[in-house]
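Sample entry (147 residues):
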Amino acid sequence: MALNKIDRLYGWEATPNNSVLDSLEKQKESVRREYEDRVRQTIVAFAEQGLNAELFYRNNDVRRVVSLVPTSAITGEGIPDLLALLVQLTQKMLGDVLMYNTEVEATVLEVRAPACLGGWGERGRRRTAGSRAMRVFVLSGRSSRSR
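Predicted structure, serialized as tokens:
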């Protein structure tokens, strides 16, 4: 689970595309305290919903505890951690069913926001009802070879 907007912490000094742990080491003590307080609040909010959660670098039981990865979409901090965790968990939990294949078919689907939300109208004309149009790209694929 990505915990976005760590760059919004008061006094956060951004280090673009850096690991969150490396960036955290470079922060002032007051920023680190605020970070820990907000993480604690987030973990409590998950617990109130019946979910166990922990920061990814403290999580010892990835099957039962949700890993939280602090990120910033603007500075890219934490994104390397999120991708590394995704690859690590995929290899660990799906290692026996993963296979290398050079021939892959994929389809890109585009979902547009309804016109009432300021999306794209008929004949490709853009409607502006005060909000931005939303485009979602979904990549779905299947191997050309069967297992």
